[in-house]
Amino acid sequence: MLFTGGHTVELFGDFFSGGNFIPHGHCYLWKSGLVWLHILTDSLIAVSYYSIPLTLIYFVRNRQDVPFKSIFFLFGAFIISCGTTHIMEVWTLWHPDYWLSGSIKAFTALVSFYTALVLIPLVPQALALPSPAQLEAANQALQDEIKERKLVEHELREYKERLEELVKQRTSELAKTNEQLHQEIIQRQHSQEKMAQLLRELESANQELNDFAYVVSHDLKAPLRGISSLSEWLLADYAHKLDDAGKELINLLIIRVNKLHNLIEAILQYSRIGRIKEEKKQVNLNNVVAEVIELLQPIENIQIEIVNELPVVNFEQTRIEQVFQNLLSNAIKFMDKPQGKITIACTEANGYWQVSVNDNGPGIEKRYFEKIFQIFQKLSNQHYSDSTGIGLALVKKIVEMYGGKVWVESELGLGTTFFFTLKK
Fold first, then answer.
1. How many whole angstroms separate alpha carbon 284 and alpha carbon 314?
2. Which one, 17, 214, 216, 397, has least CB within 10 Å?
3. Alpha-carbon torsion 329, 334, 397, 222, what sign?
4. What is the pTM of this model?
């Protein structure tokens, strides 16, 4: 259809005019208290939204080494769009420019959706980055040790030359000189051992989730909540204007935002292992399992049974709860039998308690026995979309950190048994 110049002007004018609509203030019956409540809250929210991008710009300009700068600009665009929608809420109290307001919200939705999509592939890259502070500290320590070693080697060379001269001149002092040389060699060995220890610590630091990932994960939570809320508002307020495909896309956006939030929480839990410790105490595993079962609330067709008395162990209570919670929740989540059965047992072996968690679920192929304990590794991405791929990696990290080991035995269609050991 062709539009003349007059039609175009008329359409443009309708877009920026209220037409036959009534201002939002009529919905509030122009009650001054209610109107001012919305004015003040929307204005304060808008000012807060506009201040956040300024902070991000200041941060990026003063930290030239920050990677993924583009995501900060996306956050800025998204947050400014959110602030503008609140300004429009104040404007439409008196001016019913709802086409303009809706267009701004549509732009905000597009920016939100694109930001969420861009974030998903960036999370593994961000987690793989080592901490600059840790690398700098470790490198500095290595440089100091190298200098110390070179100094010792230089002193040894000088002393050897001097020793050869003294041997010729004062053979009577040979025993004393040899003792001094032996002490110098011991110091050199100590320096080498200390350097090897620093190298091991550096390797461990590179494998852990670093402080940068921790900060980024926390900074992502607030925008994710904003995206989720905006998506839900859009679905609630404009459901009558969206077709089924549009509603499905918005619901998919909400699901992915929630999944990303759960993934961030799981990553934070994983990163805290080894860095944040609580006091060890005597923990009764029978009570721990009972509390975990009550928390998980398994459905009626799944029976959980403790075969024999579980021991009391000296452990961090939160960590051992995480072990049982992840193993039992996996057994419940992946149960495919009409009548599910999960059994928990414990035996003694060579100074260890060996605990087993058995289920009659679908089972696992042998080729996946090692893969399932790796972070972000999942066997299914379709039926259990809330799975983060971190639960079993968390179990392995906790158990091995306290001197135990964890493994799995399983057959397809017959069920799975997870084993882990704890020092007595």
1. 9
2. 17
3. negative
4. 0.44
